[in-house]
Amino acid sequence: MLDMAVKIQTEQGMVQIENDVISKIVGGAATDNYGVVGMASQTPVRDGINQALSGDNYGRGVVVREIENGIAVDVYIIVGYGMKISEISKSVQARVKNDLSSMLGVVADEVNVIVQGVRILGE
User: Residue 52 — very low, low, confident or very high, per pLDDT cuts 50/70/90?
Assistant: First the structure.
């Protein structure tokens, strides 16, 4: 994850939002979707293959990148076995965009969902 912050200019001055704040909001938004078992690490070999991340570690499953006109967010998730991955991904994209906009006033131009694993529910 890059050590960057999103900067927003307001009438009162500059607001800077750190990446770990964005990561927690993105992780919370992603895991709140039906069919998402948890967040996954973007480096599964180093952090453990198919291991769900806890709230404090969402940063390892979220990448925030600066792009030409805003930010792009990559979200690494684990889904439940038998779930429709395309529907879950669309739902995660919509929820992440909405939560970033409503909570932080940040517009994510891209939300890329990467499914790192499938887990049988109850495991």
Answer: low
pLDDT tens-digit readout, 27-36: 999 999 999 9
Q: Tell me the domains of the chain and their CATH numbers.
A: 5-119 (3.30.70.1350)
Rounded-to-integer distance, Cα 119 and Cα 39, Å: 12
